[in-house]
Design brief:
The protein is mainly alpha-helical and 124 residues long. The chain contains six helices and four strands. The longest helix has 13 residues. It is globular and about 60 Å long.
């Protein structure tokens, strides 16, 4: 997948960023390790509109020391309509998707409007 990924700006947390860079010889923007806030940094980049998809492999049979951070990252990705691959099959689907080289218009829910409408409904 190196030929596909070389056309994109890659980022990752801690050791993962280093491993991707070493194995592919591609530049990777490294954030902190996940338990040290790296997952939250990735989430921040999603909110800023700087991340288009996430590949996040984890061992489902092991609890993660930063499970709350992982859940927060998944929540932010869902809110901002960012696809997440958490296994190889899904990653293969994402990487080979036609949208890897085309624009994709995400449909982000307007939560401010929803909250405003709820408040209006409650104050009637």
């Amino acid at each position: 997948n190196k030929n596909i990924l070389m056309n994109h700006f890659l980022s990752g947390t801690g050791t993962t960023a280093r491993l991707i860079s070493e194995k592919t010889e591609l530049p990777v923007r490294a954030y902190n390790s996940g338990p040290l806030g790296g997952d939250q940094q990735i989430g921040c980049r999603i909110v800023e509109g700087n991340i288009d998809f996430v590949i996040f492999f984890w061992d489902p049979l092991e609890s993660q020391p930063h499970d709350p951070d992982v859940k927060a990252l998944l929540r932010i990705a869902a809110v901002y309509d960012i696809p997440i691959a958490n296994n190889r099959a899904t990653a293969d689907f994402l990487i080979t998707s036609r949208y890897m080289n085309e624009e994709y218009e995400r449909k982000v829910i307007n939560f401010n409007k929803i909250m405003h409408d709820r408040l209006n409904e409650m104050t009637k």
